[in-house]
């Protein structure tokens, strides 16, 4: 059984999902892959301790603090490859960005491979079921391209700006010029 709870945030409504008192989902309303790892058996239960902890974490994050992930029991459901990518995402410091290629290089080293596809990494990043908390918004394309975000590029920019990242240094998708946000 999966339990759901909503959290109102500056980037929109976030649906939180838990299973066995562990956080398995945090999806921004309208997110591309919303609920792809949650089965149909769900029940609203906003009073679970994991939801209280997650709401506190999100309150701290949106108030400008840098909450620690160790405060939450995360259990994203994915393949071993995706889980490895999400583990790397959790290590990206607040207010910093990394490229898909950099993550691919880390994966190649961890798996003793000569190289790893940045596109495969992009697929794993895009299917992150615990948005914001597992900070997939901190991943950018090569040469500073602000590429896809399942919650929408506008939300990715908003989150990066919230963390103090100068987004005017990045190329906006499909525009071919520097952003002036």
From TrEMBL:
Pfam families: DNA_binding_1, Methyltransf_1N. Residues 7-75 form the Methylguanine DNA methyltransferase ribonuclease-like domain. GO terms for biological process: DNA alkylation repair; methylation. GO terms for cellular component: cytoplasm. GO terms for molecular function: methylated-DNA-[protein]-cysteine S-methyltransferase activity. It is found in: Cytoplasm. Its EC number is 2.1.1.63. Residues 80-165 form the Methylated-DNA-[protein]-cysteine S-methyltransferase DNA binding domain. PROSITE patterns: MGMT. The keyword Methyltransferase applies. This enzyme catalyzes only one turnover and therefore is not strictly catalytic. According to one definition, an enzyme is a biocatalyst that acts repeatedly and over many reaction cycles. Involved in the cellular defense against the biological effects of O6-methylguanine (O6-MeG) and O4-methylthymine (O4-MeT) in DNA. Repairs the methylated nucleobase in DNA by stoichiometrically transferring the methyl group to a cysteine residue in the enzyme. This is a suicide reaction: the enzyme is irreversibly inactivated. Belongs to the MGMT family. PANTHER family: METHYLATED-DNA--PROTEIN-CYSTEINE METHYLTRANSFERASE. NCBIfam families: ogt. This is Methylated-DNA--protein-cysteine methyltransferase. The lineage of its organism: Bacteria, Pseudomonadati, Pseudomonadota, Gammaproteobacteria, Orbales.
């Amino acid at each position: 059984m999966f339990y759901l709870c909503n959290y109102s945030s500056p980037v929109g409504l976030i649906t939180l999902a838990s299973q066995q008192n562990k956080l398995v989902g945090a999806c921004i309303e309208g997110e591309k892959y919303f609920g792809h790892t949650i089965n149909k058996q769900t029940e609203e239960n906003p009073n679970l301790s994991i939801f209280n902890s997650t709401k506190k974490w999100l309150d701290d994050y949106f108030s400008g603090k840098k909450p620690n992930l160790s405060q939450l029991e995360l259990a994203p459901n994915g393949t071993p490859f995706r889980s490895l990518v999400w583990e790397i995402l959790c290590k990206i410091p607040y207010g910093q960005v990394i490229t898909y290629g950099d993550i691919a290089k880390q994966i190649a080293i961890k798996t003793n491979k000569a190289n790893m596809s940045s596109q495969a990494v992009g697929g794993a990043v895009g299917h992150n079921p615990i948005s914001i908390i597992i900070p997939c918004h901190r991943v950018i394309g090569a040469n500073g391209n602000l590429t896809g975000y399942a919650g929408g590029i506008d939300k990715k920019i908003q989150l990066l700006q919230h963390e103090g990242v100068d987004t005017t240094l990045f190329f906006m998708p499909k525009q071919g010029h520097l952003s002036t946000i």
